[in-house]
Amino acid sequence: MRDLVSNLLEVCNAARRAGADFPRIWRDILQHHPLVTGDPVQGIGEAGPHLEIPLFAGQVMLFGAEGFAIK
Fold first, then answer.
1. Number of compact structural domains in the chain
2. What's the rounded Cα separation, in Å, for the pair 71 and 23?
3. Which letter does DSSP use for residue 30 in this model?
4. Contact at 8 Å (CB) between 9 and 70?
5. Chain centroid to CA 31: how far?
6. CB 59 within 8 Å of CB 36
7. Which of 4, 35, 39 is nearest to 63 (CA)?
8. Average pLDDT, stretch 3-10?
9. 25 exposed, middle or buried (CB, 10 Å; 0-12, 13-18, 19+)?
10. Exposed, middle or buried, 33 (CB in 10 Å: 0-12/13-18/19+)?
11. Which domain holds residue 13?
12. How far is residue 18's CA from residue 5's CA, in Å, rounded to a whole number?
């Protein structure tokens, strides 16, 4: 499972580095991915505002100013 989440994280960050914005990454990669279990929700943390994307097994992918990360 960890490898699948790490792979998804790398694919999303690579798309962002290539110039894709969040709506495109959501539509093309995340929205129908089997690890994604719900819609993004706005949140705020130490680094500022971010989007939280719920993943299978209770994990959460964050998207913020620094890119994608796993919480």
1. 1
2. 20
3. I
4. yes
5. 10
6. no
7. 39
8. 96
9. buried
10. middle
11. 2-70
12. 20
How do beta strands 48-54 and 41-45 pair?
A: antiparallel
**What tokens were used for 39?**
């819609």
13-58 pLDDT, tens digit each: 999 999 999 999 999 999 999 999 999 999 998 889 999 999 998 9
CA 37 to chain centre: 12
* Coil, strand or helix at 27: helix
Residue recorded with tokens 């100013």: 65
Q: Which two tokens stand for residue 25?
A: 């990454």
Nearest to 64 by CA among 24, 22, 32: 22
Report the pLDDT value the prediction gives residue 57, as an integer from 0 to 100: 86
Tokens matching residue 57: 């097994």
Please give the structure tokens belonging to residue 45. Answer: 């943390």
